Amino acid sequence: MTWLTILLLVVSNVFMTFAWYGHLKHHQASPLWVVVLVSWGIAFFEYALQVPANRIGFHGGITLAQLKIVQEVVTLIVFVPFAVLYLDQPLRWNYAWAALCMVGAVYFIFEA
């Protein structure tokens, strides 16, 4: 697995997290169509990074299933700080349990 793949996945996931959830904090009064268009604009950058990450990883020897699990781990790593720091959500034990499940998923997908 290349570090470039992981770096691109992390940065792309930051964009996608803001595209999906960023409007919940500051744009509650905005019309839905405006929020959707802004989210699509942010998501463009996610796709511009995600597609190359998948291509580099897949052609670099990572299986499709491994790519997906890595993406899910990255999602959790990006989402938890976003939820806690940006959206002021409480840090809960379920995040730790979810992370433990993801560790198991990584183990099983890479050891199979």
Task: Describe the overall structure.
The chain is mainly α. It is built from 5 helices and no strands. Helix 1 packs antiparallel against helix 3 (32-59) and helix 1 (3-21) packs across helix 4. The longest helix has 28 residues, at 32-59. It is flat and about 50 Å long. The protein starts with a helix and ends with a helix. 14% of the residues are buried.
List keywords for this structure.
112 residues
Concise structural overview:
The chain is an all-alpha fold. It is built from five helices and no strands.
List how many beta strands DSSP finds: 0
Report how far the terminal alpha carbons are from each other: 16 Å
Query: What oligomerization state is this entry in?
Result: single chain
Q: How much is the average pLDDT?
A: 93
How would a crystallographer describe the biggest sheet? Answer: none
Provide a count of the helices: 5
User: Which shape, going by the Cα principal axes?
Assistant: flat
The level of helicity is: over 70%
How are helices and strands ordered from N to C? HHHHH
- How large, in whole angstroms, is the Cα Rg? 16 Å
